[in-house]
Amino acid sequence: MADERLVVIGGDAAGMSAASQARRRRSPGELEIVAFERGRATSYSACGIPYWVGGTVGSEAELIARTPEQHRENGIDMRMRTEVVAIDLAARTVTARDLEGGREYVEPYDALMYATGSVPMRPDAEGFDAPGVYGVQVLDDGADLICELDSGRVERVVVVGGGYIGLELAEACRTRGLDVTVVDRSATPIGTFDPDIGAFVAEAMEKMGIRMVFGDAVTSVETGAGGRAVAVHTAAGERLPADLVLLGLGVRPNVALAREAGIPLGSSGGIAVDNRMRTQADGVWAAGDCVESWHRLSGQRMVVALGTHANKQGRVAGINLGGGYARFPGVIGTAVTKVCDLEVARTGLSEQEADLAGFRYVTVSVDSTTKAGYYPGAQPIRVKMIAEKRTGLLLGAQLAGREGAAKRIDVCATAVWNAMSVDEVLGLDLSYAPPFSPVWDPVLIAARKAFEAVEADVRADARTE
Length: 465
Prior knowledge:
Blueprint: E1 4-9, H1 13-25, E2 31-37, H2 49-54, H3 68-73, E3 77-80, E4 82-88, E5 93-98, E6 104-108, E7 111-114, E8 118-120, E9 133-135, H4 139-149, E10 156-160, H5 164-175, E11 179-184, H6 195-207, E12 211-214, E13 218-223, E14 229-234, E15 239-241, E16 244-247, E17 251-253, H7 256-261, E18 284-286, E19 293-294, E20 301-302, H8 307-321, E21 335-339, E22 342-348, H9 351-356, E23 361-369, E24 380-388, E25 394-401, H10 409-417, H11 422-426, H12 442-464
Parallel strand pairs: 1-2, 1-7, 2-3, 7-18, 9-16, 10-11, 10-16, 11-12
Antiparallel strand pairs: 4-5, 5-6, 8-17, 13-14, 14-15, 19-20, 21-22, 22-25, 23-24, 24-25
Helix pairs in contact: 1-8
């Protein structure tokens, strides 16, 4: 019998990264690991689901990095289609329910890894729980949606919300030849981008034939025969017929089980953890979409639902559970996506976020090309930078462009992470050849313009003193 027992709730990125790291450091004789997953698959790419729905990815299997059988071969007792329904912190037990057979049973733990992920945000309004309304977060959701789209009875789709997942699903449905409308209460899509960059996204969607309804909120879902969704109603009085309604309002941390057990939550609504991924409940660790993270620039606690962070946080927790030492150093809000033929990316703070964090700043935007202008295939790109007044500290960057644009955000993310000024970014020794970049890379052009704006602001302040 093992010296200790680790129970893991959740079989995707954070949970299985933690389990795998702990197993690498401690043998089955030292640490028994039992993992519960309510779905049919483990260690899969949720971010790839829209591309599977749209046909870019050919099969479900391509999204799975490690199967339950592979985890079992690694010495992890992987229990599929089993949901943890209760946690007893005092007794150090969990109650699990076999979703196939209905049997409930109790399992003890010495350490508990909570990695339940997130759930789609669903408005508390009439009709949003009706058949034909889909939130897509886990692999099973993607399979159900594809089955629905393959049924032949769907021609019109309404996507409620213009966030990342909403737009990616809208594109997937449009690729299938469906009539698609996106409704969002904001003036531009993807609220983490500033409106001037968001406008590029809206334009790309409209060029693809997707109708975008902005500045309007969905108030209810109308149901028809059998209680199935048939239309969406908006605050402005529009009735949008729909054979299918998709939720694209973002996600919220799946913390109901933690709340019921008494595991403390943070101000963001996610589980409160320290930098080693320990919760405030003895013996309980947490990671992934269900926890809150620390933003390195704003100092704010926030929930960030990204597979990159889930895997990193799970790794940190697993190293610590295995007897090592690791800490999660925070986030800076880096994200990237492709909408139709447009690539958009961001890192650091947006203007609104910089305002809320109390920064005084300057902003610049530059237009350039992804390659030398004379080189075949050069595509337009816009880079926006936000720099702190006086210091020139790079606070954030956003970009939009065609093929070859998006991954430039990683240069900006590295600079933000290392607290570099725009003057320091301007001096970076970036690669150059005509097939890859103009002689002045768009990032360097933006940094130069930002530096000039900071200098101009300093001179203007000096004249008024």
